[in-house]
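TL;DR need C-alpha cells for one chain.
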Amino acid sequence: MIRLRGIEKSYQTGPTRTYVLRRIDLDIVTGEFVTIMGPSGAGKSTLLGIIGMLDATWTGEYEFLGHPVHLLKPKQRAELNKENIGFVFQQYHLLDNLTVYENIDTPLSYRNYSRSERQSMVADTLDRFQIVGKKDLFPNQLSGGQQQLVGVARAVVAKPKLLLADEPTGNLHSAQAREIMELFRRLNAEGTTIIQVTHSEENASYSQRIVQLKDGWKVD
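>> reply
TL;DR here they are.
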C-alpha cells in the first residue's frame, strides 16, 4: 500500500539547514496496524503528515496504492487523500457549531454521495459506535472520550483504506484510551490499515509492528 524511499524533510534557518527527517525508507502493506514511536522531536508527526499528504515540502519517493505521490500535482494528491485516508487527531478537531450527526456527515459532503446514501452511512456509523443518543448534541456537551469517539467515527464514516492517528488517546484517561484502542483493533480486523503515532507502550501493544524514529532517522 505504502512505499517510501529516501524521504527527507528539512528547513533553512539562515545559513543552517535543519533536518526533521533523514532518508526514511518504509513499506506498509494493506491490512497492517503500524505504530510510529520515538522521543519528542523525532519526526513522528511530520512523517504521518507526509504519509497523509498534508505536507508537500519534502524530497524522496512516495508510492500510495500504486500512485507516485511525489510526481502528482496538488489537486491529484488532494483527491487521493480524500478518497482513501481518514485522520484522527489528539485535539479531536470537531466543529463546535455542528452537532455530532453533522460532524460525522462532514467528510461525506465532499464526496459524490446522494443525500439518502449519506443519511444511511451516518446512521450506520452512529449505530456502530453506539452514539445514536448523542447525535443531536454539540461537542461542548460531550466528555473528552465521547468527543474522540465522534472523531474516530467521522474519520471512518467514508470507509477509508488508511486510518492515520496522531496521539489519538493523548487527552483521555486510561479507560477511555482502552476503548479507543479496542475500536482501532476492530477496525483493523475488518481490513482498515492503521498507522498511529503514540508515546504509549500500551497503545503500541495493539499494533503488529513498531517503527522507531530518533533525531529524524528510522532506527532498526
